[in-house]
Specification:
The complex is a heterodimer. By secondary structure, chain A is α/β, with parallel strands linked by helices. Chain A folds into two domains: 176 residues, 3-Layer(aba) Sandwich (Rossmann fold), CATH 3.40.50.970; 129 residues, Rossmann fold, CATH 3.40.50. Helix content of chain A is 37%, strand content 17%. In chain A, the strands form three sheets. A seven-stranded mixed beta sheet of chain A has the order 3-2-4-5-7-6-12, with helices on both faces. In chain A, strand 10, helix 8 and strand 11 form a beta-alpha-beta unit. In chain A, helix 8 packs across helix 12 and helix 9 packs across helix 10. Chain B is of the alpha+beta class. Chain B has three domains: 92 residues, Beta Barrel (OB fold (Dihydrolipoamide Acetyltransferase, E2P)); 47 residues, no CATH class; 197 residues, Chloramphenicol Acetyltransferase, CATH 3.30.559.10. In chain B, helix 6 packs across helix 8. Classes of the chains: A alpha/beta, B alpha+beta. At the A-B interface, helix 11 of A face helix 2 of B.
Chain lengths: 326, 400
């Protein structure tokens, strides 16, 4: 937490949530590459090893082994928090996550309380192997909960709730928000997991987004407010479970939907949202629902290409103007 | 020498392709810029494709009588590099561009692109004009209209603010809200039924033709009958005979087929409270006028009492309406939605008609006979011939 409790970043909120979980429950431990003395690749576990000796453990460079060990520990009654250095690397442990952790309860009736933290999403110059957004991949699998906090408060409260859940949770924390996103203090209360938030109210169109894209959508909404249109922004918070009710209620108010995600365009969260709205609420739509995703290429390294690759406030504003003209 | 593609130009707004009629230049021939080199035919006209610049025709890549889309390469022209530059043309690709040229993010300004001439904007099949515009209704608008029991025709007066002038849900709600400022009374079920039939019928291209018919002989004949048939019944019987000779004009167009009438059943319009009822006389071609008179009078009575039997309604191939009873001389009635024809009879008036034999105008009781029809099924000529035959039959009332 920042000095005098005046300001806390998204990254600090994640550290504080882990510190609180470690302090509150002796079954919790943190496991990952360099999470111990080094404090984690992004310092999300800074000083935790010293504060909780023997419960913040360095892992070998094998995501496969890390998840396998954590699943075993969960079966034995512990509540592990795994840190992947980058979301991209979790794919090395993919088999353990989707075939072991996700199916365990359904195969054996035994819960698998496990949190896998994925530092996700693009940042300037991160390139194809350190920028991926994998929420759609994991959300595809039954048995996994996939959380995508967009605010400091949500990063804190949702990580605590993730640790408390008996299901394996994929916790997608956005690297772009780590240092710049700040809040005055950590929250005392929070919306439950699985409930979306109306981040900004509006009557002309609904933007559904999550994670860092919420901030791009809010900036776009601000820009369009200057043009006399009121954009409603829905922050899904959790992409699985997906709060269809809140989305549908918003579309019922506005009649128009744009769904924005940082993942790739083929399928995914935005497609799922559009499919649900069209399937259950076609009569709410006064215009075709639109989606805006990253481009259908690996995430580029060069800052200019990266800026053109991901949805930005400008791209969202352009898409909204098109949607409002339809 | 650079090879320049000759491209199928955009030949018209709705033209997607054209077929090759004639090559106007042969490979090896030297052509001027804008010289006509190829004759193509669209579904609307024959047009010429011109050379994009001067040069030597290298080869054609198309076959005679084959059809090619707008934007297709039709052949190649060898032109000098200077001409290519001067005309701002794109050379046919020979080798991939050097990837080393790519310097994204380089601080240096990119070189100024060469000035380009107007290029064909379409490089493939153009997107056909879609069903946007005022006729497009969103699912939400449709749902809302269904909820309120409205039809597209009810929105005719709403100026849409959406793409292509479509009515958005906001436009619609504003329209509905504005209605509350006016006095509103419920429409009778008869009114709603007529509205529904007319709205459905109006989805077709309807046309009307007319001709005067002399009623003198008919009126004389009428006096000899007991009970007396009305003029509309003469017209009805005449129409039935004309259609029994050739029923095609009363056929219905469904898809690519004409559905012919199986029986010459003809209805007639009876004004009722706040609407119109149409009783039907069956197999009119087989019943002489004398037999029809009683049936006709009976049906008129039943219609006015709203007690028409089921077999006396529906399933007619045409309708006769005597708008002359309203004092009207001319009208363009609308056929029922499931029918192709409606025959109208105007009010009889004494009019001077030039008699060639007598060398003077003679007073004649004349009425206008109109035929409104579905123009998809028949044209003015066929409608005119049918109407002339009906007028002719009405002039010989003894045969009816």
């Amino acid at each position: 937490m920042g000095a005098n409790g005046m300001s806390v970043t998204y990254l600090e909120a994640i550290r504080e949530a882990q510190a609180r979980a470690l302090a509150a429950d002796p079954r919790v431990f943190v496991y990952g590459q360099d999470v111990g003395a080094f404090g984690g690749a992004f310092k999300a576990t800074k000083n935790l090893a010293a504060e909780h000796p023997g419960r913040v453990l360095d892992a070998p460079i094998s995501e496969d082994a890390m998840v396998g060990l954590a699943v075993g520990c969960a079966m034995e009654g512990l509540r592990p928090i795994i840190e992947m250095q980058f979301a991209d690397f979790s794919l090395v442990g993919f088999n353990q996550i989707v075939n072991q952790a996700a199916t365990l309860y359904w195969r054996t009736g035994q819960p698998c309380p496990l949190v896998i933290r994925l530092p996700s999403g693009g940042t300037v110059g991160s390139g194809p192997f350190h920028s991926q957004s994998l929420e759609s991949i994991y959300a595809h699998y039954p048995g996994l909960v996939v959380l995508t906090p967009a605010t400091v408060e949500d990063a804190y409260s949702m990580l605590l709730e993730a640790v408390a859940l008996d299901d394996p949770v994929i916790f997608c924390e956005h690297k772009l928000l780590y240092y710049h996103l700040k809040a005055e203090r950590l929250p005392d209360a929070a919306l439950p997991v699985g409930k979306a938030r109306i981040s900004r109210e509006g009557r002309d169109a609904t933007v559904v987004s999550y994670s860092a894209m919420v901030h791009e959508a809010l900036a776009a909404a601000e820009e369009l407010a200057g043009e006399g249109t009121q954009i409603e922004v829905v922050d899904l918070r959790s992409v699985k479970p997906l709060d269809t009710d809140t989305v549908m209620a918003s579309v019922a108010r506005t009649g128009r939907l744009l769904c924005v995600g940082e993942g790739w365009p083929w399928g995914g969260v935005t497609a799922e949202v559009v499919a649900r709205v069209v399937g259950e609420g076609l009569d709410l739509l006064d215009a075709p629902p639109l989606r805006l995703n990253a481009r259908n290429t690996p995430v580029p390294f060069h800052p200019h290409l990266w800026a053109a690759h991901r949805p930005t406030a400008r791209a969202i504003a352009t898409a909204l103007r098109k949607l409002l003209r339809l | 020498m650079p090879q320049i593609p000759i491209i199928m130009p955009q030949l018209g707004e709705s033209i997607a392709e054209a077929s090759i009629v004639r090559m106007l230049a042969a490979p090896g021939e030297t052509v001027r810029a804008d010289q006509e080199v190829l004759e193509v035919e669209t579904n609307k006209a024959t047009l010429n494709v011109v050379a994009p610049c001067r040069g030597q025709l290298a080869r054609w890549t198309v076959e005679l009588n084959e059809s090619y889309p707008v934007g297709a390469v039709l052949g190649y022209l060898e032109a000098t590099a200077e001409d290519v530059q001067a005309f701002g043309l794109t050379e046919a690709p020979t080798a991939p561009s050097d990837p080393a040229d790519f310097t994204a993010g380089d601080a240096a300004e990119p070189p100024e692109p060469p000035p380009t001439r107007v290029q064909p904007t379409v490089r493939g099949l153009p997107v056909p004009a879609h069903a946007g515009g005022a006729s497009y209704m969103s699912p939400r608008l449709k749902a809302r209209m269904a909820e309120l029991g409205l039809h597209a025709a009810d929105l005719a007066g709403v100026a849409g603010s959406g793409a292509g002038g479509r009515v958005t849900i906001q436009d619609f709600e504003a329209f509905i809200a504005a209605l509350d400022r006016h006095k509103q009374t419920p429409a009778s079920s008869m009114r709603v039924a007529v509205a529904d039939a007319m709205r459905r019928s109006w989805s077709r291209p309807l046309a009307t033709v007319g001709t005067p018919v002399a009623l003198d002989r008919l009126l004389e004949h009428r006096l000899t009958c007991q009970p007396k048939p009305g003029p509309a019944l003469y017209a009805l019987r005449a129409l039935a005979i004309a259609l029994s000779e050739n029923s095609a004009p009363a056929g219905r167009l469904v898809g690519r087929k004409i559905v012919h009438p199986s029986s010459i059943d003809i209805g007639f319009a009876v004004e009722a409270d706040d609407g119109v009822l149409v009783p039907v006389l069956r197999e009119v071609d087989r019943r002489p006028l004398a037999e029809l008179v009683g049936l006709y009078a009976n049906l008129v009575d039943l219609a006015r009492q709203r007690r028409l039997p089921a077999d006396a309604t529906g399933a007619a191939i045409g309708v006769v309406t005597n708008f002359g009873t309203f004092g009207l001389t001319w009208a363009t009635p609308i056929p029922l939605p499931e029918q192709t024809l409606v025959l109208g009879l105007g009010a009889g008036r004494k009019a001077p008609v030039w008699d060639e034999a007598a060398g003077k105008f003679l007073p004649v009781i004349e009425a206008q006979l109109t035929l409104s029809f579905d123009h998809r099924v028949l044209d003015g000529g066929a409608a005119g011939r049918l109407l002339a035959r009906v007028a002719d039959l009405m002039n010989r009332p003894g045969n009816l």
